[in-house]
């Protein structure tokens, strides 16, 4: 299971626990309230841990991409025929600015990274 899927699963459980906690507080059921508070605290710790792991993975991928020797913006014509471009350039990595990696690299436009000029 990917980090993203696991995060989504935990967020769903967290949301469910918060709704059940509200219901238990309305009923004034103290043992159940304690149980849900403890579970919410545990799930929030897991979320923080997974967010750190996700950020680390993105950072390491960003470092790999930054270490490639050549980079330049991808033109609209090249974007239209991305398959041809990827076949012609060995080791090309294309990063879109709206992805997590693109945001981390601070890109403003679609950029290609490669070991040699293209």
Description:
- The structure is a single chain.
- The two termini are 36 Å apart.
- The chain is elongated.
- It has 118 residues and is mostly helical.
- It has 5 helices and 3 strands; from the N terminus they run H-H-E-H-H-E-H-E.
- Helix 1 packs antiparallel against helix 2 (30-66).
- The protein folds into 2 domains: 1-63; 68-118, 2-Layer Sandwich (Ribosomal Protein S8, Chain: A, domain 1), CATH 3.30.1370.150.
- A 3-stranded antiparallel β-sheet has the order 1-3-2, with no helix packed on it.
- It has helices spanning 3-27, 30-66, 76-80, 82-88, 100-105, and strands at residues 70-73, 93-95, 111-114.
Distance between the termini: 36 Å
**Series of secondary-structure elements, N-terminal to C-terminal:** HHEHHEHE
- Provide a count of the helices: 5
Shape: elongated
Fraction of residues in helices?
55-70%
Major sheet, described briefly? Answer: 3 strands, antiparallel
How large is the radius of gyration? 22 Å
The average pLDDT is 92
Number of domains: 2
Give the class from helix and strand content and strand pairing.
mainly alpha
Q: List the uncertain runs.
A: none
How much strand? Answer: 5-15%
Beta strand count: 3
With strands numbered from the N-terminus, the spatial order across the biggest sheet is 1-3-2
């Amino acid at each position: 299971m990917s980090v993203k899927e696991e995060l989504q699963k935990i967020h769903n459980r967290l949301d469910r626990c918060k709704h059940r906690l509200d219901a238990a507080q309305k009923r004034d059921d103290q043992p159940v309230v304690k149980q849900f508070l403890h579970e919410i605290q545990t799930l929030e710790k897991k979320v923080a841990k997974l967010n750190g792991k996700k950020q680390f993975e993105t950072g390491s991928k960003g470092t790999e991409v930054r270490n490639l020797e050549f980079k330049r913006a991808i033109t609209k014509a090249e974007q239209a025929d991305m398959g041809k471009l990827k076949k012609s350039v060995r080791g090309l990595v294309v990063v879109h600015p709206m992805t997590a990696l693109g945001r981390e690299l601070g890109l403003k436009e679609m950029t290609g990274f490669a070991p040699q000029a293209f």
